[in-house]
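dumping this here so i dont lose it
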């Protein structure tokens, strides 16, 4: 059987694992030890940290894999490049993977490649951060350079907030520096796409729904299609092509954060993997394809065909989140089943009795909802109905969210 190694066994890799099983692939997963759902779904599991490149390579060689990939996480991308380079597999190169997982190196590459992007500085100390903010001009964004899911990212509008932002970004990074970036105006959208054999063979701009918590902005959902003008759509294509070439991405997916301000398109960052927050599900629904299959086919060197299998359907998705720390104390399964019938997909990550955290980043979710919708109000109506069915600390999430709004 053809063997695929999937890095990560969390909720974001589960659909990829299931797609591999549907394709008849022998599915191997690797992740740190833990109660991760992907372990039980795969044909074989290795309990190895996905950042441990040497150990992952040894496992891949022992299994004689035919391909390696992931989705929804940046931390495993450099390991994929390392394994592909040593085993001659199709996929992102080690050099490109390193560049795409360090936001400072990425921005340097954007500059060299004439990609429209925000002004930035690399900062090794609080003094550097303060100097950068003075040179660039407030407001700025202080970022940890090696994270995904909006972790370690703080918007700073006043100099008094620079120290806390620097401490937050520097606390968990494996690099000796952070970046300070000019905060641009405009509307933030996402763009996902695929490169195969040096060609940008598919890209999909999508609307982005943001959740603002304190000084952090978190992607909480997305929608297709993106209704930007023809001029903006063309410029997005130009900037995606430049960014892909600047980073040297090939035979992989990409996920980009983009700002659109009038006719100006700026690329904030780009990762060498598909995005999270239901992006593959939305692309599959709108374009009439199985995007998870495309990720796997690309990793195995199979020529990609994006011919739709079904008519396009406007669709949107959001994460289910909790506004408080606590425990799930109840789920009204009957009422939730009625909500599920109106959705393309409604997933709860946890059962009654499981602890939940207040929403901080893309990993502190409790589920997601995908639905056919052309207006966000339609989606939010379904979200409210789902929240009425889930209870945390004895109260419905709908009541808890309404209380926070007031």
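and the seq i came up w/
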């Amino acid at each position: 059987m053809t063997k695929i190694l999937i890095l990560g066994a969390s909720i974001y890799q589960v659909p990829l694992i299931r797609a591999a099983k549907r394709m008849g692939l022998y599915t191997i997963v690797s992740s740190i030890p833990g109660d991760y759902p992907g372990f039980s779904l795969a044909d074989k599991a290795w309990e190895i940290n996905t950042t441990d490149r040497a150990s992952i390579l040894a496992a891949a060689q022992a299994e004689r894999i035919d391909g390696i990939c992931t989705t929804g996480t940046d931390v495993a991308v450099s390991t994929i490049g390392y394994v592909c380079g040593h085993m001659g597999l199709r996929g992102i190169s080690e050099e490109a993977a390193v560049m795409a997982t360090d936001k400072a190196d990425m921005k340097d590459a954007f500059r060299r490649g004439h990609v429209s992007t925000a002004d930035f500085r690399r900062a090794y100390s609080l003094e550097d951060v303060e100097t950068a903010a003075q040179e660039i001009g407030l407001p700025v964004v202080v970022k940890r350079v090696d994270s995904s899911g909006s972790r370690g990212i703080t918007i700073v509008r006043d100099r008094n907030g620079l120290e806390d932002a620097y401490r937050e970004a520097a606390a968990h990074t494996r690099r000796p520096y952070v970046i300070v970036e000019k905060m641009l105006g405009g509307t933030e959208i996402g763009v996902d796409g695929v490169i195969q054999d040096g060609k940008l063979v598919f890209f999909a701009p999508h609307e982005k729904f943001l959740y603002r918590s304190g000084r952090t902005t978190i992607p909480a959902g997305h929608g297709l299609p993106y209704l930007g003008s023809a001029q903006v759509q063309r410029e997005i294509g130009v900037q995606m092509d430049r960014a892909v070439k600047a980073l040297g991405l090939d035979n992989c997916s990409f996920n980009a954060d983009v700002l659109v301000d009038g006719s100006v398109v700026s690329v904030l960052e780009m990762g060498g993997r598909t995005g999270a927050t239901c992006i593959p599900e939305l692309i599959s629904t709108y374009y009439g394809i199985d995007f998870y299959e495309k990720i796997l086919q690309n990793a195995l060197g199979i020529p990609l065909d994006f011919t739709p299998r079904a008519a396009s359907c406007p669709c949107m998705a959001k994460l289910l989140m909790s506004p408080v720390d606590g425990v799930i104390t109840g789920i009204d399964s009957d009422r939730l089943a009625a909500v599920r019938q109106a959705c393309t997909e409604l997933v709860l990550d946890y059962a009654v009795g499981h602890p939940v955290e207040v929403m901080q980043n893309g990993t502190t979710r409790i589920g997601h909802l995908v639905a056919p919708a052309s207006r966000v109000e339609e989606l939010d109506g379904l979200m409210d109905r789902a929240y009425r069915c889930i209870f945390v600390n004895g109260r419905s999430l709908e009541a808890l969210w309404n209380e926070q709004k007031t």
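The mean pLDDT is 94.
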